[in-house]
Amino acid sequence: MRLSLPRFPTPSSLPPLPARDLVALLQEYLPSPSPLLGAVDNAIPVPIKQLVAEAPLNRLFADAIKEGEFDEFEGRRIRLEINGGQPGITLGFWAGRLRVIEGKGEATIRGSLAAFKTLAERKQDPDQLFFQRRLVIEGDTELGLALKNLLDSLEWNLQLREFLFRTR
């Protein structure tokens, strides 16, 4: 009697994995990019972060800033952080401009990279992200909720190429 082993499909005989499933598989088994992003974040001096982030943020929200929508945030500090504390960025509003600053915020909004991406791309209602605890506000929750409500009320669309390179 001859024993036969089961035949397993070879990679070339399998149909291609749909992109959605491939992304889910990679997210499940690849390590989190947060430690690497944290190391990069710690290595970048604040003046470089200011140079990279301030002008695009002020362009993105120029109309709202001009209309006084950010005035209630004058002199306040809010930190946006990826889970685990790094990377993160602390933003303030002074003299009619959003500023990248060093240090802690009065309020911290913390979540996964995916949650912030979903928020920025406006793919999901911000309230749902908070109710599902994908984004969390710590510290001065009133300040954090005021920012969330402001961003939710504004008409804005974050397209990376336009965000980084648009002039106005």
TrEMBL record:
Residues 58-152 form the SCP2 domain. The keyword Disulfide bond does not apply. InterPro entries: SCP2_sterol-bd_dom, SCP2_sterol-bd_dom_sf, UbiT. GO terms for biological process: ubiquinone biosynthetic process. Keywords: Ubiquinone biosynthesis. Pathway: Cofactor biosynthesis; ubiquinone biosynthesis. The keyword NADP does not apply. It comes from the Bacteria. HAMAP family: UbiT. Belongs to the UbiT family. Required for O(2)-independent ubiquinone (coenzyme Q) biosynthesis. Likely functions as an accessory factor. This is Ubiquinone biosynthesis accessory factor UbiT. The lineage of its organism: Bacteria, Pseudomonadati, Pseudomonadota, Gammaproteobacteria, Pseudomonadales.
